[in-house]
Known about the structure:
single chain, alpha/beta, Rossmann fold, six-stranded mixed β-sheet, three-stranded mixed β-sheet, 8 helices, 12 strands, 37% helix
Amino acid sequence: MAGTTTAERGERQQESSGPPSGGRRPRLRLPLRLRLRTIIILAVVCVLLAGGGIWVLYGSPWARVERVTVSGTRELTRQQVEEAADVPVGAPLISVDTDAIEARLRRELPRIDSVDVVRSWPRGIGLKVTERTPVLLMRSGGKFVEVDDDGVRFATVSKAPEAVPLLEMTVSRSGSAAASLCRFDERRLTREAVLVADSVPARAARALRVVKVRSYDDISLELSGGRTVAWGSAEQGRAKSRTLSALMKAAPGARHFDVSVPTAPASSGS
Length: 270
């Protein structure tokens, strides 16, 4: 029998070594029925996972509100905050309307300046409260109305907090003062008084007892020891503060200071 020729040996070697260099190997494709079965199984798994997640969040007893925590209060009590918040204990935690709770707290408790309602998974609601701080007080009968740094009258107390000056509104309703009141209502004048109190230099602030408002541009201060300051309007607060500091240092025995025009200050009395 004749031996294998050189050409035949070359063909067999090429067949055994696969496709030529740079050629593509044929892809292994799953049968259509197997691919459909895989897709259906994956879809069922996704539906089951989604349904299980929804049940855990809304239907299971593991993610329902069981406790409410309150932090940040000073004057308010925990009970007051909890009652005003009216958190739906027992409801699914995911369904609690935190915005509605915040709005309810601010409406029911004006002393609250801001509040952050947070979900504490898996079973809690946290109420982080920031209370308003009084910077001025207004007399109301035998009590005091607290005013914050935005000019908001937020609470009435029977005892005046220490080191908080009084605000006296003595606006006349006749003449030029009446015209000022028509242009700047009491709410605006209250904010102006707050600006003045905030601008008073530290040395005078420690002695500040009363801020008197007669009109927008007629605000004065009463300090301890019978001393007074004519401040004018709340405008140029920084310049007036620097001028008052210099006057009090230059004339420590003076009883009356006028910084209503900070470029032409005056002091008198001794």
